[in-house]
Write a structure and sequence with these properties.
alpha/beta; Rossmann fold; eight-stranded mixed beta sheet; two-stranded antiparallel sheet; globular; binds cytidine-5'-triphosphate; binds calcium ion
Length: about 230
């Protein structure tokens, strides 16, 4: 399907979306990653495109197809994702759905690390990855609207409010991932929208419905911003 980027409430708007996990190499065959199917991020990209936006999806490694009507950059690591996002500025809005690995190994081995009798297991020296959302939230060329996601297992609202401030976001879509058989890899989601204006609870719904409601919220917010 092709979406007409000249029609719909987001016509003429360029929106960056990140999705999926990042992979941080240990050696040529091994990596560290976060758990993420990319379903929610890809659904957000598709929903924004359906409203007429020019969507630029930056996706980590996922097993699902590129969404229709969206331009996709495929990346592996957090630093590649950051570079891809920055190269897409300026934009009207950016939505950070990716589950970025918080740490990477300080250096990855050029050759495969081999087991050998008597060899100890390798110990990995980790360093922190750049915070892509915070970098864009505080960027000189910041999009009008910056939206983050937050996966929490406890103190969901307080943690989301702290992230909102620290990262310079307008909204955080907060997700309680504590319950079993829940969000991770599943098709449904229950979120709260945390902003400076307060907390809005959305009922449990499919990830597609979360995406469509979020796209409508973004369209409504951007409507008040004239360029
Ligand atoms: N994020 C990002 N770059 C990172 C880490 C997170 O862009 N290096 C973004 C995610 O895409 C998400 C938001 O920041 O939109 C919150 O991610 P989350 O993992 O919940 O928060 P962290 O700040 O990494 O804190 P922690 O994992 O310790 O809860
Ligand atoms: Ca994190």
């Amino acid at each position: 399907a092709h979406f007409d980027t000249r029609k719909g409430p987001l016509a003429g708007r360029k929106i960056i979306v990140t999705s999926g996990p990042t992979h941080e190499p240990i050696d040529p065959v091994r990596y560290i990653a976060n758990r993420s199917s990319g379903k929610q991020g890809h659904a957000v990209a598709a929903a924004l495109a359906k409203l007429g936006a020019d969507v630029r999806l930056v996706s980590g490694p996922v097993a699902i197809a590129d969404p229709a009507g969206v331009s996709v950059s495929h990346v592996e690591s957090a630093r590649e994702m950051r570079d891809a996002v920055e190269s897409l500025l300026p934009a009207d809005a950016a939505v950070f759905v990716a589950a970025v690995a918080d740490w990477r190994t300080e250096r990855s081995a050029a050759e495969k690390i081999k087991k050998a009798p008597g060899n100890a297991a390798p110990s990995l020296q980790m360093v922190e990855n750049p915070d892509i959302l915070a970098g864009i939230g505080h960027h000189a060329n910041r999009p009008y609207l910056v939206v983050g996601f937050a996966a929490e297992t406890q103190n969901v609202v307080a943690n989301a409010q702290a992230k909102l401030k620290k990262k310079g976001a307008d909204f955080i879509v907060a997700n309680d991932v504590s319950h079993e058989g829940g969000v991770m890899g599943g098709d449904r989601n229950r979120v709260r929208i945390v902003s400076a204006g307060g907390v809005e609870e959305w009922p449990e719904m499919s990830k597609e419905d979360v995406a469509e409601r979020l796209a409508a919220l973004i369209a409504e917010r951007l409507k008040t911003i004239t360029v």
